[in-house]
Amino acid sequence: xxxxxxxxxxxxxxxxxxxxxxxxxxxxxxxxxxxxxxxxxxxxxxxxxxxxxxxxxxxxxxxxxxxxxxxxxxxxxxxxxxxxxxxxxxxxxxxxxxxxxxxxxxxxxxxxxx
Length: 114
Prior knowledge:
By secondary structure, this protein is mostly helical. It has helices spanning 4-29, 35-39, 41-62, 68-84, 93-110. It is built from five helices and no strands. Helix 1 (4-29) packs antiparallel against helix 3, helix 1 runs antiparallel to helix 5 and helix 3 packs antiparallel against helix 4 (68-84).
């Protein structure tokens, strides 16, 4: 059985963190910025913070003993992988983070976890 809500929350946190941290890391490392990262960094940060907040809200609601802590740990690990190893591919988080949040917010009230 696959816990889709768990995976969506991990994605929301991970891709949100990747969005929030990509611009400062890219500027220091000399990586290219996407158009959105260069032109509207404030909007990207808002998307990142909403995404992180949605994932964290689900993790808190689930509780630390029922996977909430693992959601946060896996989310941070996803962000490190997405930004560190994928570099320019990390900009795809701009599409994936809002989709994960939307799917999480639709599925969570329905209680569809498997």
